[in-house]
Amino acid sequence: MHWITRFSAVFSAALAMILLSPSLRSFSPAAAIRSSSHPDSGEFKSRHHSSSSFRESPIFRNADQCRSSGEDSGVCNPNLVHVAITLDIDYLRGSIAAVNSILQHSMCPQSVFFHFLVSSSEIQTLESLIRSTFPKLINLKIYYFAPETVQSLISSSVRQALEQPLNYARNYLADLLEPCVKRVIYLDSDLIVVDDIVKLWKTSLGPRTIGAPEYCHANFTKYFTGGFWSDQRFNGTFKGRNPCYFNTGVMVIDLKKWRRFSYTKRIERWMEIQKMERIYELGSLPPFLLVFAGHVAPISHRWNQHGLGGDNVRGSCRDLHSGPVSLLHWSGSGKPWLRLDSKLPCPLDTLWAPYDLYKHSH
């Protein structure tokens, strides 16, 4: 599908309708939509939701060629694709849109098992919201992640949102999920998938424990403080490795290897050092870089077109990177549902809107 460089309301609406089609598996832009200035969306307030806040999702069924999902055999069925995603009141609208997008573009939606991670005391409310929005979604389970598991290890960050315990739940997937779950796709709540998730699931990790799109052109040194690079105790951490930045919002994880090599403990150790030495400024990302950078199975960039939230740049609307797109990720402070509600959306936010099931958003 070819894109027109100039952005217009008519084109946005047409493109959004195309993205709604379950027959669309991916799209390859010929030219990205141009950048434009935008008010800081971080000032917008999130809304709290009730069980009647969301429209009921359409029913999605497996195609004839799908292998049996074996819904009666539960989470241990080897034919299932496992996806982990967090549920939080402030990001619930994003999580529901992400799930909706995955189901809509999957040839075998009944073969996807969703593992929802919750740290709020409102766990029953959140579960009720998910089940009422996706009443035919049988393959799901809610997991409680106790904030005290990681609370004492969290240090202050550049954004308060990065300090929330649930942001660190991805570190504990190997402990939270059933031992029979050997692999999982972890996804952030601020993204949509516009391709069949099974393609990401089948990515070969080779000898590696995690796979993710890598960005080796990024300035890797900026993710750590000057003190880290000048301290002989730490600056040899990446010796013999070719470390590249990767975004932890989209990862394929081999849980069997993770458990075998106790990676959770390794991440926790770096978080303990951070509390004493202040070796980085961001939240949950740097410990992952310290443990895994240079040892990541590379995945195509199409699976994480990230930074659409503008990162931490005030008044920024981002472009798509060149190349095909299978997943759009609004990482950063600007979220599409907040900007759409403000009537001041960025151009690419209209691509998220068709997957939004919030009742008062249309």
From TrEMBL:
Membrane-protein topology: Single-pass membrane protein; Single-pass type II membrane protein
UniProt-listed Enzyme Commission number(s): 2.4.1.-
Compartments, as annotated in UniProt: Endomembrane system; Membrane
Pathway membership: Glycan metabolism; pectin biosynthesis
One Pfam match: Glyco_transf_8
Keywords (A to Z) from UniProt: Glycosyltransferase, Signal, Signal-anchor, Transferase, Transmembrane
InterPro entries: Glyco_trans_8, Glycosyltrans_8_dom-fam, Nucleotide-diphossugar_trans
Gene3D superfamilies: Spore Coat Polysaccharide Biosynthesis Protein SpsA, Chain A
Location of region: Disordered: 36-56
Residues of the signal peptide: 1-16
SUPFAM superfamilies for the chain: Nucleotide-diphospho-sugar transferases
Top EC class, one word: transferase
Highest taxon of the lineage: Eukaryota
Keyword Ion transport found: no
Similarity remark: Belongs to the glycosyltransferase 8 family.
Name of the protein described by the UniProt record: Hexosyltransferase
Source organism of the structure: Camelina sativa (False flax)
